[in-house]
Description:
single chain; alpha+beta; CBS-domain; 4 domains; four-stranded mixed β-sheet; 14% strand; disordered C terminus
Amino acid sequence: MDDFSPASLLTALALLLLLSIFINGSETALMSLNRYRLRHRAQAGERGARLTERLLRRPDRLIGLILLLSTIVNVITPMLASFIAFRMGGDVGVAVGAVLLTVITLVFCEVAPKTYGALHPERLAIPAAYVYQALLFLFQPLVWATNLLANGVLRLLGASDRQASHALSGEELRTVVAEAGAMIPRRHQQMLVSILDLEKVTVEDIMVPRNEIVGIDIEDDWDAILDKIRQAQHTRMPVYEGEIDRIIGVTHMKRIAHEMARGRLTLDSLVQTAVARDVYFVPAGTPLNTQLLNFQHGKRRMAFVVDEYGDILGLVTLEDILEEIVGEFTTDPATMMHRDVHTEDDGTFVVNGSASIRALNRAMQWKLPTDGPKTLSGLIVETLENIPEAGTTLKIADYMLEVLQAADNAVKTVRVRPPAPQLASAAAKPDEQEPDHNIV
Length: 440
């Protein structure tokens, strides 16, 4: 090295330090890349993203190349720096040079570039991919030999040299959606999370209870049947004989309207329209994501939920499942107040005991427990382990509940005081028209 001038030696040292900066910054950037965003850009046809993704498919080769270059730089740099310092200042220069090199390496070659690479990975990683692709071709024999030895050591230690999967679980995907921030509107985030939650909810959780199913009893007086048809708010209505468990079929109001317009509607023709298609039954424990697919494959929009004995528990429709994803089908979010909820002037709410807990939580933004009974009445009875009398007060999940009316072995009306006082003016008035659970 005595033949080289100090200027050329300093230039070589500067180039080695710049190479160290590039290696450290690009390594952090490549490992910090969002793989899904990178894949999206690659699928969109961006050449740099495709090249980067191809490099990251074999991280062993990329890491081998980076460590090879880093080792070369880390070995040559201190030797060259010591030689320059000795020529310029002797033993004292070596000591001073060692301190300066340590500071420069730590601050400018390690911390700063790695921090930049972590904060702006795409800005640094994608241009670096072009350089690494060329270097990988140049040093391919050395990289291959290094990886062969390293992978052999991994196998001896019982570790796999396969690339780790980047597939996300449902919970991880929820975290990704929650951290999307302004990139995904809040409403869309809620819908995506609701789709992921479909597998956790069963048809029994969202069904219309059997006592609330609106249908036609052919044992009623004919005039009463006609009145029920004229007042019907649903597209399809169950037709049964005496009780809902003795169901005959489901009639479409369009067919009945045609028969009435022609003056040919009779009890027999009503029954004929109902039996035109088989009744569809589903088990109570069917997850919503499964039932949504079943509706699609069977071209159905309504199903009767049955227990293990075949008794009808309730009714579930395609609309009910879609409401779990997008919310209630109302034109104004302010009208989301559940039909079974009435606001009091003191900020409390009078609630029908048969109201679904899930529907209350969704409409009122409450957090009543949903892992047990499905209705508010059932929740109170299970908590008290008996049928309460009017005036009984209890606390469930920080909600104060007062039983206002109890009859027929069930709680009919409950006063609910949420944990945080809510102004009556902040709650919307109930819709004048009840939600059409039977509309399909």
